[in-house]
Amino acid sequence: MLEEATIRELAEQRIYERGMMYYRQNRVHELKGKGTEYTATVSGSDTYDVQVSLSSGGDGVFSYECTCPSARKYFNACKHVIAVLKEIQHRQELESFTKSASEAGNRVRASGSAYQSGANMLAYFKSMVQRKQPQRLQLEPQLFSVCYYGQYSVWLEFKLGEDRLYVIKNIIDFLHNVKLGNSVEFGKNLTVDTSAMEIVGESSKKLWQMLQRVHNDLMNSYMRASYVNRYDGGRSLPFQQKRFYLTPSHLEEFLECMGDTEFLFQYDNEAARRVSVVHENPRLRLSVQDKAGNGILSLPDEDICPLDSEYRFIRCGNRIHVTDSRFRELVVPLMSSFAGTDQIQMSKSQMADFLGSVLPKLEYIADVDLPASLTERFFLEPLQPEFYLDYYHDGVEVRPSFHYGNTSFNPILQAGPVSSGQLTLVRDMETEIYLLSVFDTYGFFQNDGIFVQPDEEKAYDFLTEGLPLLAERADIFYADAFQKKPVQRMNRITAGVSVNDNNLLEMRLQSDDLDMDEIFAIIASYRKKRRYHRMKDGTFITLEEQQLSAVAELVDSLGIRKGAATGETVEIPLSRAMYLDALAREEDGIRLERSARFRSMVRDIRHPTESELEVPASLEHTLREYQATGFRWLSTLAAYGLGGILADDMGLGKTIQVLAFLLSAQRERKAPALVVVPTSLLYNWADEVQRFTPELKVRMVNGSKADRRNQMEDSDGDTDIFLTTYNMLARDLELYEGKNFSYCFLDEAQHIKNPDTQKARAVKKIKASVCFALTGTPIENTLTELWSIFDFLMPGYLLSHAKFKQRFEVPIVRAQDTHAAKDLKRRVMPFILRRMKREVLKELPDKVERRVVNEMTEEQARVYKAYFVQAKKEFAEEMKNRGLGESRIKILALLTRLRQIACDPSLFLEDYDGGSGKLELLGEVIEDAVSSGHRMLIFSQFTTMLQHIATWLDDRDMDYLYLDGQTPSIERLRLVKRFNEGEMPIFLISLKAGGTGLNLTGADMVIHYDPWWNPAVEDQATDRAYRLGQKNNVQVLKLITKNTIEEQIYELQEKKKSLIDQMIEPGENFLSKLTDEEIRGLFA
Prior knowledge:
- The chain is an alpha/beta fold.
- The chain folds into seven domains: 4-130, no CATH class; 135-275, no CATH class; 279-375, no CATH class; 378-478; 487-602, no CATH class; 611-833, Tandem AAA-ATPase domain (Rossmann fold), CATH 3.40.50; 847-1082, P-loop containing nucleotide triphosphate hydrolases (Rossmann fold), CATH 3.40.50.300.
- Helices cover 40% and strands 23% of the residues.
- The strands form ten sheets. Strands 5, 6, 7, 10, 11, 12, 13, 16, 17 and 18 form a ten-stranded mixed sheet that branches.
- Helix 32 (969-980) links the parallel strand 46 (961-963) and strand 47.
- Helix 12 runs antiparallel to helix 13 (456-471).
- It is flat and about 140 Å long.
- The two termini are 86 Å apart.
């Protein structure tokens, strides 16, 4: 149970006493909790939330929080926390009493003694003495206002009580006693216990809170200024004892607190009256007397008393008005004019100005009495202004004419009073001044009753900005020189486009009332960032419209140049068609009239799913729906002689889509296709061709220089695909001179992302009818990478590199230019097909397995060949001397060594530095997968291989986790949690140590670095990711080294997979299930 000393030590004495007062006043509400955790709300100047945590025994305070401002400033507990702790202490006492009473009752029933129960009851109710019932009091204010030599001051006085109200004779002393919780005697019939005081009434509660806050603000300001002794509680503040001064902001707050509640108000020595607050302007009353043609303005005596010099608050009758800003703007100068007098005299000419300029404004705040004898000397007619425009050299001139009924005059020539017979015109000076000020704003000068602006730029500003302001209040007339309005918007340009027999676009530009020369002149002005273009007839064409951006963009992008006359066509490359169509659809400034062939082309490229092109019969049941779409997209682009980027996510089968296209185009091709791939994928591509499209004859260009030369000759002319690598192509460029290919495909096209490399320069010299690129990452770091790929696909489509950087890369990267980004996207998106796994998720199986074949390095191949010859010899000797049954351990050792060489010969050869083709392939897979956001598990039977991979990752500063048989159980769990929470993208796992018992659903890719004899073991490892809780499709990659035992192991896996569950258990004894013939075949 909480002790008093525990609570007291949490706060300084002053705060503790305030908290005790809050507790006694029952200000703690909604206390919730039991045991150690509690929440509550405490009402003070506002309502605050408190949270308290006690120690496990409930006798200590572990932590506390409060939402009040003081809690954020100070380390110790605030008064609200103290009050809550006291309430918790009280609850603990109640629970203790209830428990003790129950136990005592049991004892009474057992022993017949009730003394202990009675003692508990007395102790509990004695503890409640300190909790007092609230003393409910009324608080009533009285407001006093004094004006002394034009200086206004407002004071407040208060009465407090229950039935009878008593004046608070010293407000400062009373507030000081409230802070201390002292009792205050107001008379023999009223003593206020401030620790139990409760103010009743909504407005009174707000007023009491305001009083305390104002007092604190004023006392703190004086304390900071050292105006009072800091230890007298602020009692020496320079206030009247029973009143205190209200600043204008405090006065406004007081009136807001009172709302609709009436209160006493006393002005100077007047008798006090009950008033209420209204938020509306009072209506004043003014009168004008006629004295021989002159006017006398007077303000009759009214019951009006301002409370401040700005007339924000005015007592009128029994209401205090809170005025608006316009009222104050008008009433202050009016009342200042009456200072020291009760009349204002005006001459006949002044009366005309008064009636025309002043009276319309005063009608907002006052009712004005005008005698008929006065108004009969003046005539009032509405102003009807007119302005006549004409050209003045490069600028404009304007002649004004003002009409009041039948009276007309030029305001430049007639500035004084205007008479008609015996009557004087009351001019609308406010409107006149406003209209004429427009010409001052735009720099006009006066010349013989005419406003003149000779400067073309300023004339344009006037016509586009100033003239509309005049037109809102006046009639505008144009001279004959203005055949149409002086400022015109740019007419919409119509572009007619068609596709001719040469597969080029033919375009014709035209616009209403504009010939081609004018169109180009307007575009030239726009490029110079002019705000307008001046036509030959003097008309201004405004260029401050978005549509002109599209027009200029059209002309620049399509290469249209000045000189083509209206009616002539311009030929532009077919590759611009999709961009032109998108530009016309998205921009209002262009209307495109499309020919039927153009519309058909755009529809075919934009909607490949609607194509009627049939998938080759041999692949009809192999391609998934999205892959068939990719095939049709490639075919459609190729049909129009256009290239593109197939940028599908990793694992969606870009290769098979290309093979489907090449198979479909086989009959019509006039030349072979060229496919350029990274070295690590050369044999994988050959394997995919053989598996999916054996009808296609593929020729790999590799080996020695002489071999490559012979392979390129293709004397029979029956090769469908030449397959080579980036490195080989760069070395053999002379072998490709003079050769024309039907298609050229670049796989992993990010290899040419740097346009200055030898690889990029080499592939861009290949001659092909259509070029395509395959890459999941067309942009890795810079936009130049995208430009370089397009420079291969369609040279010049994205301009030269220098212009591309100037127009797109620099504005987008450095200035975040959204318009440039949108325009670039408009250009490239028709030629990029990208699908992510999540987009085609419904088509994908739950688990996609793929074999990825790699070639050994030259040194690795030599080591493997030498060791294979030796292993074959040792196998023959074992079979001869001991037979198969007794030689399985020896055979397994021989096979394991071959598997290690296929992975990396350095696993057992210490001085080996000839590289590993498989490790190179894995590196490319890892980099591509991580850049695409994939998270992967990499399994290997060999922990030494995992350590080699870890070294490779360390050298590239790539993060990973590692688990093998030496990892303690508790560490295994921690590693799994870290991976599933997304901490690292790569997890290296020993097949035996981590193949079972782990839940790694945070991965969406599984890589088996080396094949294991039993595919069930691999499946179990794969199932670490593909299991209940997995929300993403899982891609499984099996890396196979070409021309090694790994290919044979994979074939055995496929052969035996359907029988494994019935025949064997996971483990190495898979070898024991192989037939003699199968084992012999491993060393064949």
